[in-house]
Specification:
The complex is a heterodimer of chains A (about 375) and B (about 375).
Chain A (H helix, E strand, L loop, with lengths): L12 H7 L1 H14 L6 H14 L3 E5 L2 H11 L7 E5 L5 H8 L3 E5 L20 E5 L10 H11 L2 E5 L7 E2 L2 E2 L6 E5 L13 E5 L2 H11 L3 E3 L2 E2 L10 H31 L6 E2 L7 E2 L5 E5 L2 H10 L29 H7 L2 E4 L7 H17 L4
Parallel strand pairs in A: 2-3, 2-4, 4-5, 5-8
Antiparallel strand pairs in A: 1-9, 6-7, 6-13, 8-9, 10-11, 12-14, 14-15
Chain B lengths: L3 E3 L2 E3 L12 H14 L6 H14 L3 E5 L2 H11 L7 E4 L6 H8 L3 E4 L21 E4 L11 H11 L2 E5 L7 E2 L2 E2 L6 E5 L13 E5 L2 H10 L4 E3 L2 E2 L10 H10 L3 H19 L6 E2 L7 E2 L5 E5 L2 H10 L29 H9 E4 L7 H16 L1
Parallel strand pairs in B: 4-5, 4-6, 6-7, 7-10
Antiparallel strand pairs in B: 1-2, 3-11, 8-9, 8-15, 10-11, 12-13, 14-16, 16-17
The chains are: A alpha/beta (about 375), B alpha/beta (about 375).
Chain lengths: ~375, ~375
């Protein structure tokens, strides 16, 4: 009986935190000592370190990845009457940010890499299009070269949704440094994670950088000088202190994810019912999620669950098919590849703390599922 | 806790935060326990904090959000306020009140403040137009706006009310607590507030089950469950980590409030005979003012401010520029002279440290310094 094995959860945040608890508490105590809870010194230090990590001139920390996207759109003057082109197979926030800015989302279909298909891009551009918002889904970089070329040709901004992709690379550049702006999430489930909500904007444009700093702080240029109306979206100093600890381990933990992914890709190569992600030599994926396309996905998911292996689906309902998107006029069938993938995608556990034996056990159960049914 | 001296001069700090950490261990234990459970997003401690906050406000629902500013924005959003609508408030407030209105797409309309630094109800009706949808009375400094008079106007014109109670937790008028008049009321937990957390945070209270449901969805991307969105929302959750701190500090609200009231009384009494230089706002016996800020009007304000700073008393000005004269407000086309009371007050007001951790010696020293400036 193999059921005596311990269960493998889809994520294991407790494992990550147990190993660095003492460092975290020390960092928190240091914040208490100076009590600069709002935009304190750790925020600036984190921003500098994050900018280095992304190989970009400026990083501005905000309250969430969603807010990063909203502020990017607002700083670029995108609002009512404007269109922003994006994808539908993402977390809801990459579309709701466009709605929050008052603009209209326009969806294009995706390719085999789960990312925006550049070939579909140009036909979606209208006179109202102001920006392209590609998502580096799963931590795999979108195909930025043709996207940037099209953006240049049409005078459009490019806002990279890097929520899942810190450290990912594309033709020698890090994501977040390629477009006009990069938007990162520091949500607890992300590869670089706060103990609460958080986000970061990156840019090489000093004017945009200043604008982000004013917009995240209620439009204030100084304590008494409000130059533009805005909301409040600051990363807590306390979270910045926590993130500085986590940054020490980010590269190492990312390499572990990549190693897990390589293992899966090799070990599942000959399983007929499964398609694993492909990484081109000019790409570096960071595998925030490890997503396979699986025949009879729901049955496989149940089979794995019965063996104590927890998996997830990112995301079962494409954004254009949510009730909230009904007014945008996209029906079923309008984004065929996105919809086809939504029925087949399955995210396998890929967090750094997984043991080789966990990975082998997962692979073994996927293999047995398909072999038992004679399609291996 | 003892007084601090620098070069022989007593230092009376405006912020109480350094003295909040006498029993730092209990906070760190709380944080450690949370790190162990990793329940970071909308976790158990947040739900507990919301229950306790609602009880404190004697209201059925409290919803934790990312900031006091977001509390205002989310309230206006779920009330359906947006482009084309007008919202009445006062220029005697922190800019975020107005930033929140503009963020929804609505237009802020100002009404002058009164002797108590709150909106003057006798001037509201003149500002009502067919486009007016709501009033945001600001319970500025911890005072309570004249809600009975405001509610009369609201009923006559069928307007909505969002109370800006960011500075006035536990304040009341005629025994009725702030937050109990409006459709919603908005509180800030910013580190300098009477009830604070260790970063940004806010709370919305409401009597309405329906608004509470809408707010809970809207703050969490509009999600009705993990995979379904009915209407697009935003990301504005009070971090569970901050709720852990809030749960420990909410027990002290009664002490904080009574101590601030006692400190304010001492100041009022000590300055009662100085009418030539100091004008204390009229204190109404039916209003429980909680003195988030102890504001008085003084002659030669800037000189007094400099004198106090030289003598170690960290007095402040909240705020030197009324909101309608900020650079950001140019688009609203107001000019100097439009709101004479607010404008005159911004030149005359000073805020003395009055927080709950001041020692009697520090209060006496502050009083002596103010008196000696005018009477020496």
């Amino acid at each position: 009986m193999k059921t005596s094995r311990p269960t493998i959860p889809y994520v294991n945040l407790a494992g990550q935190h147990a190993s660095i608890k003492a460092e975290l508490l020390e960092a928190i105590e240091q914040v208490l000592d100076h009590s600069k809870f709002i935009l304190g010194p750790e925020v600036e230090e984190f921003e500098q370190r994050f900018a280095q990590v992304c190989q970009v001139d400026h990083a501005i920390a905000v309250n969430s990845g969603t807010d990063a996207l909203v502020l990017a759109l607002r700083a670029l003057g995108i609002g009512p009457g404007d269109e922003v082109i994006t994808v539908s197979n993402s977390f809801i926030a990459s579309t709701s940010c466009i709605i929050l800015a008052g603009a209209r989302p326009v969806f294009v279909d995706v390719g085999e890499d789960y990312n925006l298909a550049p070939a579909q891009l140009e036909q979606a551009i209208t006179v109202r299009t102001r920006a392209i918002l590609p998502v580096h889904l799963t931590g795999h970089p979108a195909d930025m070269e043709p996207i940037m070329a099209i953006a240049r040709r049409h005078g459009l901004h490019v806002i990279e949704d890097c929520a899942q992709a810190v450290l990912a690379g594309y033709r020698g550049q890090r994501v977040g440094s390629i477009g006009t702006v990069g938007c990162f999430s520091l949500h607890p489930l992300k590869t670089l994670n706060a103990c609460g909500d958080g986000g970061v904007l990156t840019t090489n444009d000093p004017v945009l950088s200043e604008s982000f700093k004013v917009l995240r702080n209620i439009g204030l240029r100084s304590r008494d000088d409000c130059v533009v109306w805005s909301g409040n979206s600051r990363l807590d100093t306390l979270q910045a202190a926590i993130l500085l600890v986590k940054l020490r381990y980010l590269e190492d933990r990312t390499e572990k994810r990549r190693a897990h992914a390589r293992f899966y890709i090799q070990a599942l190569a000959d399983v007929g019912g499964v398609q694993t992600p492909r990484e081109h030599p000019f790409e570096k994926a960071v595998y925030h999620t490890f997503v396979i396309l699986a025949e009879r996905r729901d049955v496989l998911k149940q089979h794995l669950a019965a063996q104590g292996i927890e998996t997830a689906i990112h995301y079962p309902v494409p954004i254009h098919l949510h009730t909230a998107a009904a007014h945008l006029g996209y029906g079923r069938g309008s984004l065929p590849e996105t919809e086809r993938q939504a029925e087949r995608i399955l995210s396998l556990p890929v967090y750094p703390d997984l043991e080789p034996s966990d990975l082998e056990w997962i692979v073994e159960n996927i293999r047995s599922f398909y072999h038992a049914r004679g399609d291996g | 806790m003892g007084e601090i001296r620098e070069r022989g001069i007593m230092q009376v700090k405006f912020s109480y935060l350094e003295r909040q950490f006498v029993e730092v261990d209990k906070y760190l234990k709380g944080i450690e326990a949370l790190v162990r459970t990793t329940d970071f997003t909308l976790g158990g401690p947040l739900l507990e904090f919301e229950r306790r906050f609602a009880a404190l406000c004697r209201m059925p629902h409290a919803i934790g959000v990312a900031s006091g500013t977001d509390a205002l924005i989310l309230s206006l959003k779920v009330l359906g306020i947006g482009p084309g609508d007008e919202v009445i408030t006062t220029p005697m407030t922190f800019i975020a009140t107005v930033g929140a209105i503009v963020m929804t797409g609505a237009t802020p309309v100002f009404v002058d403040s009164d002797d108590g630094f709150v909106i003057d109800p006798t001037k509201i009706e003149a500002a009502v137009t067919p486009r007016t949808k709501a009033i945001i009375p600001v319970h500025y400094t911890g005072n309570v706006a004249d809600m009975p008079a405001i509610m009369d106007i609201v009923r006559r014109h069928q307007l909505l009310v969002v109370e800006d109670a960011c500075q006035s937790i536990s304040a009341s008028r005629d025994g009725k607590p702030v937050g109990s008049w409006g459709e919603t009321a908005c509180f800030s937990l910013h580190p300098l507030k009477n009830l604070n957390v260790w970063g940004d945070g806010g709370v919305i209270v409401t009597r309405s089950d329906d608004l509470a449901d809408q707010l809970r969805r809207y703050r969490n991307h509009g999600l009705i469950n993990r995979d379904e969105v009915q209407t697009f929302g935003c990301n504005s959750r009070l971090d569970t980590l901050q709720a852990v701190i809030g749960n420990l500090l909410i027990e002290e609200v009664e002490f904080i409030t009574s101590q601030r009231i006692a400190n304010a009384r001492k100041f009022d009494e000590a300055f009662a005979d100085m009418g030539e230089f100091i004008r204390i706002p009229e204190r109404h016996p039916n209003v429980m003012h909680v003195y988030h800020l102890y504001l008085i009007r003084v002659s030669r304000r800037d000189e007094l401010l400099a004198y106090l700073h030289r003598n170690g008393v960290e007095a402040k000005v909240h705020y030197p520029i009324p909101v309608h004269l900020q650079e950001a407000a140019r688009c609203l086309k107001y000019k100097a002279g439009d709101f004479p009371i607010s404008e005159a007050d911004c030149k005359a007001i000073i805020t003395l440290p009055a927080h709950q951790h001041l020692t009697p010696a520090e209060i006496d020293y502050t009083i002596d310094q103010v008196r000696s400036f005018y009477l020496k």
